[in-house]
Each structure stands twice: as structure tokens, then as C-alpha cells.
Design a protein that fits this description.
By secondary structure, this protein is α+β, with helices and mostly antiparallel strands. Helix content is 18%, strand content 33%.
Length: 451
């Protein structure tokens, strides 16, 4: 692999395996320089191939630009390049000697809020950009609100274009203070403010010589060092069953294993487990990891559990420690972001997919729609349209074992699907949001799928 700057030794498989993985998303208003920041980050960390840079240089030269437009490294759609905006989520994968990264570059327009929700839903960290000349604006507050709704544990405020405000410390301090106060009220647990110039490269990968008053980390340094490990001892262990392995061969005549990716927590041999939603119990007799027996396995490993008893288990069931089983319910209350062009309405018949289980469901009520501009609630809107965020009450045909999203972002999340064509309609988060509506009395049952 050829780099765009001085060549460095590529990381070996062993080195990559030893590094941790950070998933992070970027968000910012139009013309805040978000795509330029991402391009600068990739360029200065030597994560771009020569042919990629040459392609960007050709397009930039065709536009009459003297230097490469690094924003083109992520704005891949033709419409994005023509309009100079980000429309779809662009994923980039790169690594340094200290950590591996999956970057989701999300759009900044209001009408693409659903795309930000998609990109940030699995993120450990969100980078929110602000133009130093404009400060915190409505779209900045929207992005902070979405990060808070999705329970993103770390937020970086990147105050960009500091070169256009003469690198003034007072400008940065005022923006950082306003944003930190707002995000803290929303419940964002950790906020780090960094003054940068993505165009000039100040404090992106290398420290800036123009801001000697700033003693904090660069963007890359913070990304490399922010803690992303989870305390497995305090996680709710969950294994959604994806496949039942039953070879029935001469070598393995009685083998029955339950395969899947551990969504959270840790499983141990000898531990008592419960199968949900049936409630049947057994003990873990063995754990196979990549064909090798192990005594302990944890998220996000893909494993096969063997149980002491022959229990009726199939795809869609959830294996959990008996001492830490979530409640099962057919009545789901959640905060959702509607992502489809077709509106979601009261009485809408849908499929609800939770983990590996998909069940029929009906939307019984939409108590409120959230206005991200000022976090106000519009009661009983009757429908949610594309990019709307609101509260819903759903009745499912079968009981589901649900964790609160605040406790587990994996097993507290679900999607609603159109049963007619399989289109994803809505992304949901079980439990209360940061701006939960007041309890609303349930309306009379609708005709149709009455569970």
C-alpha cells in the first residue's frame, strides 16, 4: 500500500489485532468544514492511497483550485460533489499504531437527520463541528440532541475555522462554554472541546503553532486515547441466537450448539442461563470460539453455546443469565426516529425486529413528536414523517425480552419494518428519552392486528 506522504511500515495483522476499535461519527452544519476535517484526518494520518489523492487532485484542478479539496475524499456521490454538501453516510476505515477506526461521516442538513441517526447509532464518540465565526446555531443543538438521544458516551466539540477568527482564544472559550452547558443539560456524559482549522491542519493530527494558548490534545490524539472499553462485569449478558448447529454426523452425533454474536456482557461455562421468551432454563456446558473450547466469552465475540439440557431453542430466542434476565412484554414504549418517506401513523401494522427476532406489531399511539430546535414536545401528532423523532406505543403479537436503551444500546434497540415490501420504517430506542413526554392515557384498541 502506498501512502500520500513519507512511507511508513504497514501495521501487521498481530499489531492490528492488539489495537482497540473506535467507532465514531462526525456531524456539523452546512459549510462547517466537516468533510474537510475528515479528509485532513485521513491525509495527515497517512491513510490515503496515492491513486485516491491523485483523483481528488484532478477533480480539484478541474474546478480551478490550487490545492486538493480534501472534502472530496468522503463526498463520493455525484450530487454531493456538484452541490458541495454531504447527503449520505460515508464510512471510512483506517488505523494507526494505537487504534483502529470506523468513521461515519454524516450529513449536516435538517432533512438528513435520519442519516445522522443511522451513522451515530453504533458510535462510541461523536465529533460535532462548529464554525468559529457562527458559534452554536440551531443545527449544532440538533446534533447534540441526537447524540444525547442515542446515548453516545463521548462528544468532541471541534471549533473549526479558527484561522478565520485570528485564532482568538476568547472566541473558542465562549463557544465551548455555550455548547458544554447545553449538551450537559441533555445528559451527554463527556464533552471535549478542541480548537482546529481543518483547512490548515491546526490541531487535527499535529499540534498548532498558532494556538499556543491551547494545551489539550489534537483531534487524532483524543481519538486514539479516549477510553472505549466496557466494564464487562456490569453489563447485562445477552446472546441473540442466530443459528442452531446440529451436524448429526458420525463424529458429532449429539452435538447441539446455539450460535450467535454476544450482544453484551460475558458468558461462562457452568453458568445458569434462561431462554427468552419461553423462560426455560439450563446451564452452559461448553463454549466454542472459532472451533476452540473456551471457559469464558464476551461481547462482541461470535460463539456457540452448548447447554446441559436439550431445550427447545431456535433463531430469534435470547440467551441470558438466569440471575439477570430482562422482563418480557408485548407493550413497547420507545423513542423513535422515522426514516422512511411513508409516514408512520397510529394503527400502522408493522414488523418489529429486535435482535434476531421479528414479530408482528401495531402502532397503538404516538404520544408526542420532539422538536429538536428547542426540545419542545408536540402532543399526539397522529403521525411521524421522515426525520421526525417522537414517542410511540407499540403492541406486539408475541412477548419480547427488552432492555432499556439507556442500559444497553444493542438489546434496547429495534427497527420497524413494512410487512409489504421489507422497507425499514423506523429506528427505535426502548424506554425514556432525555425529554420523555408525560404519560398519556391509552386510546381504545384499533381494529385489525389486535393483540
Amino acid at each position: 500500500m502506498t501512502s500520500t506522504t513519507e512511507p511508513t511500515e504497514p501495521l501487521s495483522v498481530e499489531q492490528l489485532s492488539a489495537t482497540t476499535l473506535l467507532r465514531f461519527a462526525t456531524a456539523g452544519s452546512v459549510d462547517d468544514g466537516k468533510s474537510t476535517l475528515v479528509g485532513r484526518l485521513l491525509h495527515d494520518s497517512k491513510s490515503i492511497l496515492t491513486d485516491q489523492l491523485e483523483a481528488v487532485e484532478r477533480v480539484s484542478a478541474g474546478r480551478g483550485q490550487d490545492t486538493p479539496d480534501l472534502a472530496l475524499l468522503t463526498d463520493g456521490l455525484r450530487a454531493e460533489r456538484e452541490q458541495g454538501i454531504t447527503i449520505d453516510v460515508a464510512y471510512r476505515y483506517f488505523a494507526t499504531a494505537r487504534r483502529r477506526f470506523i468513521l461515519a461521516d454524516t450529513p449536516g442538513h435538517v432533512q438528513y437527520t435520519r442519516n445522522m441517526v443511522t451513522g451515530a447509532s453504533t458510535a462510541d464518540l461523536a465529533v460535532v463541528l462548529v464554525d468559529a465565526r457562527n458559534g452554536v446555531i440551531e443545527q449544532t443543538r440538533r446534533h447534540a440532541a441526537v447524540a444525547a438521544l442515542l446515548r453516545v458516551p463521548h462528544v468532541v466539540l471541534a471549533v473549526n475555522k479558527m484561522d478565520l477568527v485570528a485564532y482568538e482564544e476568547t472566541v473558542f472559550a465562549a463557544i465551548a462554554e455555550e455548547f458544554t452547558a447545553y449538551a450537559s443539560e441533555l445528559g451527554v456524559p463527556e464533552i471535549t472541546a478542541i480548537p482546529i482549522s481543518a483547512l490548515a491542519g491546526d490541531n487535527v493530527v499535529e499540534p498548532s503553532a498558532n494556538m499556543d494558548w491551547y494545551g489539550g490534545p489534537t483531534v487524532l490524539e483524543h481519538l486514539e486515547t479516549v477510553p472505549v472499553s466496557h466494564d464487562l462485569a456490569h453489563c447485562h449478558a445477552r446472546l441473540p441466537v442466530q443459528y442452531v448447529i446440529r451436524p448429526q454426523t458420525a463424529e458429532y452425533p449429539d452435538y447441539r450448539g446455539y450460535a450467535g454474536q454476544i450482544a453484551a456482557g460475558t458468558f461462562r461455562v457452568g453458568e445458569s442461563v434462561t431462554v427468552l421468551p419461553s423462560g426455560r432454563t439450563s446451564k452452559v456446558a461448553g463454549i466454542d470460539l472459532l472451533g476452540t473450547p473456551v471457559d469464558v466469552a464476551w461481547t462482541p465475540q461470535s460463539v456457540t453455546l452448548l447447554l446441559e439440557d436439550d431445550v427447545d431453542i431456535s433463531r430469534g430466542d435470547l440467551l441470558v443469565p438466569s440471575k439477570d434476565a430482562p422482563p418480557t412484554t408485548q407493550d413497547v414504549e420507545a423513542t423513535v426516529c422515522h426514516v422512511a418517506d411513508e409516514p408512520l401513523t397510529v394503527g400502522h401494522r408493522v414488523l418489529l425486529k429486535h435482535g434476531t427476532r421479528t414479530v408482528k406489531a401495531i402502532v397503538k399511539d404516538i404520544p408526542s413528536r420532539l422538536t429538536l430546535d428547542d426540545l419542545s414536545l408536540h402532543p399526539h401528532p397522529g403521525r411521524l414523517v421522515a426525520n421526525d423523532i417522537g414517542r410511540v406505543k407499540i403492541r406486539t403479537a408475541e412477548p419480547l425480552p427488552l432492555d432499556a436503551y439507556a442500559d444497553s444500546r444493542r438489546t434496547g434497540a429495534f427497527i420497524l419494518i413494512d410487512p409489504a415490501d421489507g422497507t425499514t420504517l423506523t429506528a427505535g430506542m426502548v424506554g425514556e428519552s432525555f425529554a420523555a413526554p408525560q404519560p398519556v392515557a391509552a386510546d381504545a384498541d384499533d381494529d385489525g392486528w389486535d393483540f
